[in-house]
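Good morning,

Attaching, inline, the backbone tokens for the sequence recovery test we're adding to the shared suite. The designed sequence is right after.
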């Protein structure tokens, strides 16, 4: 699966969620323009987004976290086939544990695409990991539109929606961050750490 087309086809056939097309373009263009040296990704899946970031910014190095063993194995194969093994550190772990273990490191860019209900829980750790003037991009921030809808999202989605709303509110009102919400597809929140 060397090409992006093959990766997308594999993801679709196996019902593996990957970043949507417009969101992928935003991610690719951002990495191409900003050229972040050190990238942290939460949620590797099959390595599609990781490959996209490294394709756009050739001098970047990505630390990516994936809990699912089967996904991590597919991602390793993806990186091998794309000659990216030297540019990627894949941490096979629960993200909260991994983020705690990374607290002595700093990153220029964080791409957050892991379990949506955990975004707010991760936030203090993510803030600490981000360099001043660094950026964080959170994918699927509107969670099928529930985050923007009035009223109760229902028992099934209540916890995830509450977590995402808290995540957005915290970053929006944090004077150390500037945020921009993109409402297309399932929503993305782009944040820059100012100080």
């Amino acid at each position: 699966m060397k090409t992006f087309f093959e990766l997308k086809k594999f993801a679709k056939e196996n019902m593996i969620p990957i970043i949507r097309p417009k969101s992928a373009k935003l991610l690719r263009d951002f990495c191409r323009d900003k050229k972040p040296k050190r990238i942290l990704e939460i949620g590797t899946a099959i390595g599609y987004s990781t490959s996209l970031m490294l394709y756009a910014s050739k001098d970047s190095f990505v630390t990516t976290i994936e809990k699912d063993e089967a996904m991590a194995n597919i991602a390793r194969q993806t990186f091998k086939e794309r000659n990216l093994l030297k540019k990627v550190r894949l941490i096979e772990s629960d993200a909260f544990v991994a983020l705690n273990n990374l607290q002595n490191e700093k990153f220029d860019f964080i791409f957050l695409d892991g379990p949506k209900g955990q975004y707010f829980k991760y936030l203090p750790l993510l803030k600490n990991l981000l360099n001043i003037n660094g950026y964080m991009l959170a994918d699927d921030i509107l969670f099928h539109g529930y985050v923007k809808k009035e009223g109760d999202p229902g028992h099934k989605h209540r916890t995830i929606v509450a977590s995402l709303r808290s995540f957005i509110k915290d970053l929006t009102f944090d004077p150390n961050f500037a945020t921009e919400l993109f409402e297309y597809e399932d929503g993305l929140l782009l944040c820059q750490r100012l100080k």
